[in-house]
Amino acid sequence: MNMRMIHIRLPEHIHKELRIHAAEKDITIQDWVSELIEKELTRKETQSTHQQVF
């Protein structure tokens, strides 16, 4: 699978909370953000499909 890289800017306090959250879950920030994006896109696809049915 080809991968693309994105960069985001976060306030320092958000980045600190993110690092702590990822460490507590024993996951990298990259993997956590990737999973979060994938879940959101899947959720939106499911909602869109569900709305088309009705």
Mean pLDDT across the residues is 90
- Strand and helix order: HH
Radius of gyration: 15 Å
Distance between the termini: 35 Å
Total number of β-strand segments?
Answer: 0
Helix content: over 70%
- Output the structural class: mainly alpha
Into which percentage range does the β-strand content fall?
Answer: under 5%
Please describe the biggest sheet, giving its number of strands, its sense, and whether it closes into a barrel.
none
Q: Uncertain segments of ≥5 residues (pLDDT<50)?
A: none
Supply the number of helical segments.
2
Overall 3D form: elongated
Structure characterization notes:
The protein is built from 2 helices and no strands. With 54 residues, it is an all-alpha fold. The chain has a domain at 29-54. 0% of the residues are buried. The mean pLDDT is 90.
Quick synopsis:
The chain is mostly helical and 54 residues long. It contains 2 helices and no strands.
Would you spell out the secondary-structure blueprint of this structure?
Blueprint: H1 12-24, H2 29-53
Which key features would you list for this structure?
0% strand; elongated; 54 residues; single chain; mainly alpha
